[in-house]
Automatic annotation (TrEMBL):
SUPFAM superfamilies: Metallo-dependent hydrolases. This is TatD family hydrolase. Gene3D superfamilies: Metal-dependent hydrolases (3.20.20.140). It comes from mine drainage metagenome. InterPro entries: DNase_TatD-rel_CS, Metal_Hydrolase, TatD-like. One of its GO terms (molecular function) is hydrolase activity, acting on ester bonds. Keywords: Hydrolase. Coiled coil: none annotated. PROSITE patterns: TATD_1. One of its GO terms (cellular component) is cytosol.
Length: 127
């Protein structure tokens, strides 16, 4: 039986880099474990831009653009346009991380549901 090539469909390589974890080492460990491609998820404009840069540097990295529901405000029209432009990148594979996060978790930011719905609508329009 041939080796199974796995894809990690949701990770945050940008967060690893911010925490001082070597992205190169993390990708090498993933490859040794059978993961041959990864999709790093943007959860705001800055993270989506960083995901694009990581995809440019690493052949096995693809990315999504998005606006996470715990962001305290909806994206501006300019930010949505910047996300739209990122989607034209050949390694942009989806709009995400998006959604409605209605789970209450102690110690986590709770974005009002009306704002979450507005953000979700803008991301659905982007998709």
């Amino acid at each position: 039986m041939a080796d199974l090539a796995l894809i990690d469909a949701h990770c945050h390589l940008d967060e690893m880099a911010r925490r001082g974890v070597s992205v190169v080492d993390a990708l090498a460990r993933a490859h040794r474990a059978g993961v041959h491609q990864v999709v790093t998820s943007g959860d705001g404009l800055t993270d989506s831009q960083e995901a694009s840069r990581l995809a440019d540097v690493h052949p096995e990295v693809f990315f999504t653009v998005g606006w996470h529901p715990i962001n305290p405000r909806p994206p501006t029209d300019s930010e949505v346009e910047d996300l739209r432009q990122l989607l034209s990148h050949p390694k942009a594979v989806a709009v995400g991380e998006i959604g409605l996060d209605y789970l209450l978790r102690p110690g986590h930011l709770e974005t009002p549901r009306a704002i979450q719905r507005e953000m979700f609508s803008s991301m659905l329009a982007l998709a």
